[in-house]
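Intended use. Records like the one below are meant for learning the mapping from a protein sequence to its folded structure. Do not use them to infer anything beyond what is encoded.
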Amino acid sequence: MNVHQTREELLQKIDQLERELDLLRGMSDTARSVSPGAAKDTPTNRMYDELFEFLPIPAFETDTEGFLTRVNARSLSRFGYEPSEVLHVKRIYDVLRPDSLDQMRRGFNERRLGIKSKGNEYVAVRKDGTEFEALIYSDGIFIDGVFQGIRGVLIDISQRVAMEKDRKLLAEQLRHARRVESVGRLAAGVAHDFNNLLSPIIGYSEVVIEQLGSSHPIMEDMKEILASAYSARDITRQLLTFGQKQQVQKEHFDINAIVRESSQLMRRLVPESILIEYQLSAESCDIMGDSAQLKQMLLNLFINAGDAISGKGRICLSTRKQQLEDEIQNQWNRIPAGEYVVLQLSDDGKGMDEKTQKHIFEPFFSTKKIDGSGLGLSTVWGVARQHDGYIEVKSSPETGTQFSVWFPVASMALVSSQSPDLTSISPTGLSVLVVDDDQRMCRLVRRLLTQQGYHVAVATNAEQALSLMQQYDGGFDLLLADVVLPEIDGKRLAGKLCNISPSMRVLYMTGYGPEMLEDFGLADETNLIHKPFDVESLLKKVKAVFGQI
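Structure written out for the chain above:
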């Protein structure tokens, strides 16, 4: 349905009804300008009666106290009353919601003073208690200048009000998406630069720790440095996840298994005074996802719930399959109809007001006065969106909070491939060309690979790489190249170098996420390692590339 077109049609209908109401006013004034007894059989009065009765919307008249003295058939059908239940029994106030009474009384007094209505919105109440939004146009009834009551028509505008709510909701979703996108871009850019700095810190720290004896006086200091670097790496990954820039390694699994695997850790994350309940679906809840990211999301939700509870409390984690027949709209996203696996976590903590809820998924926003990084729920948001999922939040102050994450049901299981046997691959004699415009990265990778028996040459740009390729007799066995280089990207450089040495294997490294990789045509590239990497990850990836021979 075209919202703007429907709104225009509704406005046109209201204009038409206003013209009919003007006609009704005119005929009523003429009919009531004579005594009621003499006016009954006049043509004007009969035409007024016919028009009043056959109006396509509810029409009414009242006495001076507001009691309904006349209603048309459409009024009775719209509200569900019989004539005897309404006429001279109910006042116009009685078919409106209590919070609309003051406005109606003011309008009634204005009609008494001869002020015509320009249309006021109310919430009307049917006999069965159901409600709908209504627009009422009314006018005073006067005979010889004496106020006799009011006449009016009622227009059901619930459809227009619903469309207006949808429009405001869509506008809020758009503002939220743009805000999140802009902050996400900034976060991802910072994370990329930070990753380049962390790689040498992690790499060299591991090298030093390996060379130091366990009794060395600075061993504990080095371990603290490495632990801090790992923590910084985790923060950059959360930033990339929020900005949906983190690479996702999806596989097929039952989300119930993730919950069970994480249950012991989740128990340790919250005080023992908090009761944890699990209500897992008896049927398999299969999705396609990155298990590591989903565990992180789960832990972040648990930490958030635990922080919201003071003293004793309860956290409930449930899973279910659900067929969503109609889409759900909220201020963060639109959840289309379809089949989903729903992961739901609720707590009976302090809850959140609407103002707080508008910002909970923004990075660095935190309600905690201390120890709040502001990345917990933003990571939850990023993980959900990277898994084509959606988030629903229900909360109010002092009533607790409920987070629901909707994941598309996996249509089929993927057959996992056998991992290559890495132990049988010896680096002896294998040569590697490392290309990265960051000299610290070049020095680090050369040292790590050289220690493992590889022959390593490094270049900081494409020109140096081409020169080394021509000088090195027999070419290199592996090219380890950064995706983004000053003059030419890593993929195009690999193409040129492979023309010289067709048998050379290629491994890319990057601190960027999938969006940037897609720009360089590497979205589906498997021979890729993300910065910052540790020694073990680098060696494993290099061996895996050679293991594909």
